[in-house]
Structures are given as structure tokens and as C-alpha cells.
Write a structure and sequence with these properties.
heterodimer, A: alpha/beta, 4-stranded antiparallel beta sheet, 9 helices, globular, B: mainly alpha, MetI-like fold, binds adenosine-5'-triphosphate, binds magnesium ion
């Protein structure tokens, strides 16, 4: 479903943020991307839907290259959901409108169809009674669930998550992870940047470990947690699991 | 001092009418110049924050050019110099034949100058809304214009209501510069009353009060707008 081939990206002339990154996510697969702060995880995941342009290499999603000139990137993006660390709900719209706006303006659905879809998704993330509230009136965990619903409203082929729980208070992490676990259970293709190793162990098919812009390790999650091959991944795991 | 106070002059024909006429022209200059400044300034502010290097450069050049030349100099350049640079026919039209040449020039000059200031306010508003919002919009498949229309601008304008209010009040005060090219707006009318009646104190006191009343009204209206557009769960700006 997602395929990255020898992707390189520089910020300026001297700083290479992604070094020869190659990666495959099959349909229905869940992969977790982890690694130290600044290793390039956010940059990597944002290249998948073209939010971050790349300097060389190729990325295809569902067989369509995002680097090819003739590809309609906007259309492509609408078929890949993305959830951000800081939720990024639209503050001037209530919860329902946040979920409707993409359906109305990008997919061209009727107001009725969009409202119906929004209600269905709000039920699914258990926020029906907050449908008319504004983002600033919700807790972090609730906001992030709305953000997931906003992505799902576009009926995406895959979902990208960039540290979806790291801005949350501990007691709200699970309500978001639960939604993600159930999505994975339904066969959604997911690429998740996270340090939630419990989640990785439970639902990830593979774990990708990044350091200094390189994909250092790409292993089945049992193997990764059993005995990571690289010293850097071992060190990272021991730090994170001791917390 | 041997000054004959006569406040009654302000209510007497034709002077009361002159003050009202002057106020009328002052409002016409300010409002029309504001329409130009707000429209052009918004477009340029968007230009300065887009992904297109060409548009960004256009925005930057405009701001550098118009913001750094004093408004009075710009007014004179448009009125006295600009027509000379045009082909003869056009120059004559701008100087003489177009409707109300001095008034039009004053409106355009003030509008173009203030556009550079509005541009900077709009730009800073858009930047304050943030890269994350832009990415969130793009991520659901919106085009760049859609992101501006539905996400960045509605939030940016809310943020910059107070500085835009002061830009408008600045235009309103600077509209008095139009008298230097012969537009008989409020300040010019006041001077005219002084010349006719020698009651300068009364006339200028009246003008001061009228300017203050309009300023006060604008501030109240903008405060209401600020409250009306404030998002639930957030605070509006309060005093501007
Ligand atoms: N726009 C930019 N210009 C220059 N450098 C950048 C830019 N964005 C990110 N970087 C740098 O690129 C590197 C990778 O950033 P990235 O955000 O992808 O890391 P990350 O692995 O997601 O880290 P974190 O865990 O802190 O989110 C960092 O060193 C960062 O400082
Ligand atoms: Mg990151």
C-alpha cells in the first residue's frame, strides 16, 4: 500500500534529515515508527502524503507515485488520513463541522451525507454528546478522537499518525489508543509514529527504528521486542521501557 | 487677549453645514481608502505567506516600497509627479478630466499606502495561526486556496481585529492630509470657517470633537465585532 524507495531529504545544504529510507507497508498492515527525538520520524511520515517534499527517491501509495508530476497531490492526500501530535482541529468550527469540512469541500458530498457520516463517526469515537462543542471546550483525548474521526470521514486507504498520544495527559492516552486498536482490528493500513511500546507490541506487525535520519531496523514486532539486532535500537528500547 | 467667543457660530448657517460636509468627505476618503487597503492588503498578506516564491517576492517588494515612503510624499508623487510620467492624454485625464481628481488621488494614495500596513498585519495573523493548521488542511486534501479560505483567513482575521482597528483609525486621521492637494474635508472646512469668521478656537474645538466621536464609535463597533466573532471557550481581545 505504501512504498518508499531510497528517499533522501535535506534541510538546507548541510543537514540531511532522511538518508536512503526504504520501507513497505502492505495493505492492512500496522507499522510503528520509533526512535530518538530529532531522528526524522515526523519528517518521514509527512513525506508519505507529500506534506514534506523529498529531494530524491520515490514514494508510492496504492500504486500511485507522489513524486510523479502528473499525480494530483491534493486528491492523493484526501485518501490518506493524518493525525497530528497537537490535534490541529480547526478552532473556529465545532466538532461536527470539523468532520464535515473535508467531505463538503474536498469530496463534494452533500450536506446531508456529510452530517450523517459525521454523526456515525462521532458515535464510533464515543463523542456524540459533544457534537456541537468547539475544540477548545474538549479535553486533549477528546480532541484527538475528533481528529481521528475527521481523517476517517474521508474514507482513507491508510492512516498516518504522528505521535498521537504524546501531547496527552496519561489518563487520556488509552481512550485514543483504544480507537486506534479497533481501527487496526478492522484492517486499516496504519503507519504510526509513537513511543507507546504497549501499543506496538499489541497491534504492530512491524516496528521501524530510526536514528539520525536512517532506518536502522525494520523488524517483525516480536523480533524487535525479543532481540533487536542493532545496538542503537537496544539502547533506545532499554531507555524507553525503563520509564 | 481680546477674543470674542461665539460658540453659536458652529450652529449657524452656513458653518454648521460646512462642518457636516467636511465630515462627509473625511468619511468618504477614509472608507473608500480602507476598502482598497483591506482588499489589497489581504491579497498581499496571503501572497507573502504562500508556497509560491514569485507571489512572496511580489508581496515583499510592495511592502518595502510603500511602507518606507512617508505618506505625504506619496500623496504628492501621485498628484504632481505621476500624471507627468504618463502619456500626455492619460496624464491630462488623471490631472483634470477624471471625476474629482484630487479626491480620487487622495483615496488611492491612502489606500495603497495602508495596504502595505494591512498586508503585514494579515501576514502576521496567518503566521500566528500556524503551520500545523495549514498541514491539517492540506492533509484532508484541501488545495492551498481552500486552506486560506476555510482555515487560515477566518482565524487570522479574528486575531488581528485590534491592529486592523488602529490601521483604520490611522487612515481616518491621515485623511486630513488630503487638504494639501485641495480636498475640502473636515480639517480644510475648519480652516475655512476660521478664515471667514476669525472664530478659529470654536471651529477647531468642533473638529476635535467630531474626530473623537468618530474614533470612539469605530472603537465601540470593533469591540462588538471582536465579541461577536470570538470563539466559544476563548476570550476576545477586550480593550483595543
Ligand atoms: N523546517 C525545518 N528546517 C530545518 N530543520 C528541520 C525542520 N524541521 C525539522 N528539522 C530538523 O530535522 C530533524 C528531524 O525532525 P523531525 O521532526 O522529523 O524529528 P522527530 O523524529 O519527529 O522528532 P520528535 O520526536 O522530537 O518529534 C530535527 O533535527 C529537526 O530539528
Ligand atoms: Mg516528531
Amino acid at each position: 500500500m505504501i512504498e518508499m524507495n531510497a528517499v533522501n531529504k535535506w534541510y538546507g545544504k548541510n543537514f540531511q534529515v532522511l538518508k536512503d529510507c526504504s520501507l513497505k507497508v502492505a495493505k492492512g498492515e500496522v507499522i510503528v515508527v520509533c526512535g530518538p527525538s530529532g531522528s526524522g520520524k515526523s519528517t518521514l511520515i509527512k513525506t508519505v502524503n507529500g506534506l514534506e517534499p523529498i529531494n530524491s527517491g520515490d514514494i508510492t501509495v496504492d500504486g500511485v507515485s507522489i513524486t510523479a508530476k502528473k499525480t494530483n497531490l491534493d486528491k492523493m492526500r484526501s485518501s490518506i488520513g493524518m493525525v497530528f501530535q497537537n490535534f490541529e482541529l480547526f478552532p473556529h468550527m465545532n466538532v461536527t463541522d470539523n468532520i464535515k469540512i473535508g467531505q463538503l469541500k474536498v469530496l463534494g458530498r452533500s450536506d446531508e451525507a456529510a452530517s450523517e457520516k459525521a454523526a456515525e463517526l462521532l458515535e464510533r469515537v464515543d463523542l456524540t454528546e459533544h457534537a456541537q462543542k468547539y475544540p477548545s471546550q474538549l479535553s486533549g483525548g477528546q480532541q484527538q478522537r475528533v481528529a481521528i474521526a475527521r481523517g476517517l470521514a474521508m474514507e482513507p486507504k491508510a492512516m498516518l499518525f504522528d505521535e498521537p498520544t504524546s501531547a496527552l495527559d496519561p489518563e487520556m492516552i488509552n481512550e485514543v489508543l483504544d480507537v486506534m486498536v479497533s481501527l487496526a482490528g478492522e484492517g486499516m493500513t496504519m503507519m504510526v509514529v509513537t513511543h507507546e511500546m504497549g501499543f506496538a507490541r499489541k497491534v504492530a506487525d512491524r516496528v521501524v527504528f530510526m536514528d539520525f535520519g536512517e532506518i536502522v531496523e525494520d523488524a517483525k514486532s516480536d523480533d524487535f521486542f525479543g532481540s533487536p539486532r542493532s545496538a542503537r535500537a537496544q539502547e533506545f528500547l532499554s531507555k524507553i521501557l525503563n520509564h | 487677549m481680546n477674543y470674542n467667543w461665539d460658540w453659536g457660530i458652529l450652529f449657524r448657517d452656513p458653518y454648521a453645514g460646512w462642518i457636516l460636509d467636511g465630515l462627509g468627505w473625511t468619511l468618504v476618503i477614509s472608507l473608500l481608502a480602507w476598502v482598497i487597503a483591506f482588499t489589497l492588503g489581504s491579497i498581499l498578506g496571503v501572497f507573502r505567506t504562500t508556497s509560491s516564491p514569485v507571489l512572496r517576492a511580489i508581496g515583499t517588494c510592495y511592502v518595502e516600497l510603500f511602507r518606507n515612503i512617508p505618506i505625504l510624499v506619496q500623496l504628492f508623487l501621485w498628484y504632481f509627479v505621476f500624471p507627468e510620467l504618463l502619456p500626455d492624454d492619460w496624464g491630462r485625464w488623471v490631472k483634470r478630466d477624471m471625476p474629482a481628481p484630487a479626491l480620487t488621488t487622495a483615496i488611492v494614495a491612502l489606500g495603497l499606502y495602508t495596504a502595505s500596513r494591512v498586508c503585514e498585519q494579515v501576514r502576521s495573523g496567518i503566521e500566528a495561526v500556524g503551520v500545523g493548521q495549514r498541514q491539517a488542511g492540506r492533509a484532508i486534501g484541501m488545495t492551498e486556496p481552500q486552506v486560506y479560505r476555510y482555515i487560515l483567513l477566518p482565524n487570522a482575521y479574528r486575531i488581528i481585529i485590534p491592529p486592523l482597528t488602529s490601521e483604520f483609525l490611522t487612515i481616518f486621521k491621515q485623511s486630513s492630509l488630503a487638504l494639501t492637494i485641495g480636498v475640502v474635508e473636515l480639517t480644510a472646512m475648519t480652516r475655512q470657517i476660521e478664515e471667514y469668521t476669525f472664530q478659529g478656537f470654536e471651529a477647531f474645538t468642533a473638529a476635535t470633537i467630531v474626530y473623537s466621536l468618530v474614533t470612539f464609535t469605530v472603537m465601540m463597533l470593533m469591540r462588538i465585532l471582536d465579541k461577536r466573532t470570538a470563539l466559544p471557550g476563548t476570550f476576545s481581545h477586550g480593550a483595543t
